[in-house]
Design a protein that fits this description.
By secondary structure, the protein is α/β, with parallel strands linked by helices. Helices cover about 30% and strands about 10% of the residues. Helix 2 runs parallel beside helix 3 and helix 3 crosses helix 4. This is Leucine-rich melanocyte differentiation-associated protein. It comes from Holothuria leucospilota. It holds the Pfam family LRR_9.
Length: about 200
């Protein structure tokens, strides 16, 4: 028996007004799904994703993803689209992505409050700060939103944020505070992070 077709490894449940995966989809089918598109639904609880062990691409555009949304660990996931959601605290959300999606290479977060751009009222400096912070925290990232991560951009991101993060961590550890209390300096986008 040969490999299964790529169509059998894709599941699209987009634009169905769903809050959970339909129960008529069997676990055998879920086991082989590599690409899941559940965009433009009403998902806010993503614990069901643990039933997709082969998933490498997840499209969540236009759902109810927020800063504190929880995801199960997904070691194979390399592509995540989260456009048009409600993520407002970049620090908290990126920390969740780093912990649960260690192989993440392609991330799109356009039209979220925490992803400032000209299209949602953000300034150019806020856009640059957003990109630098995300790139500095996700080392394997190749594309953020609609733009490839360049070597120069990665160098600048690490120079700006890794240094500040290490300094903050050392100071906080000396005071015996937990990592959860560390605040990453967000320069121009501080006001966006504090809104959640």
């Amino acid at each position: 028996m040969g490999d299964q077709s790529s169509d059998e490894k894709r599941l699209s449940l987009a634009y169905l007004d769903l809050t959970e995966i339909p129960s008529n989809i069997g676990q055998k089918q879920l086991d082989i799904i590599e690409v899941l598109d559940i965009s433009n639904n009403k998902f806010s609880d993503f614990r069901f994703l643990k039933t997709f062990p082969s998933l490498h691409t997840l499209i969540l555009d236009g759902n109810n993803v927020q800063s504190h949304t929880k995801f199960p660990p997904m070691p194979k996931l390399h592509t995540l689209w989260l456009n048009k959601n409600k993520v407002s605290n970049l620090t908290i959300f990126v920390d969740t992505l780093v912990k649960n999606f260690p192989k993440l290479q392609y991330l799109s977060m356009m039209n979220n409050p925490a992803a400032p751009s000209y299209f949602n009222g953000g300034t150019f400096q806020q856009f640059v700060d957003y990109r630098q912070f995300v790139i500095s925290q996700i080392p394997g990232l190749e594309v953020l939103d609609d733009k490839k991560v360049t070597a120069e951009e990665r160098y600048e991101a690490e120079r700006v944020y890794k240094h500040k993060f290490r300094s903050s961590t050392k100071k906080k550890k000396r005071k015996s505070q937990s990592r959860d209390e560390i605040q990453i300096p967000m320069r121009a986008s501080d006001s966006m992070d504090s809104s959640s």
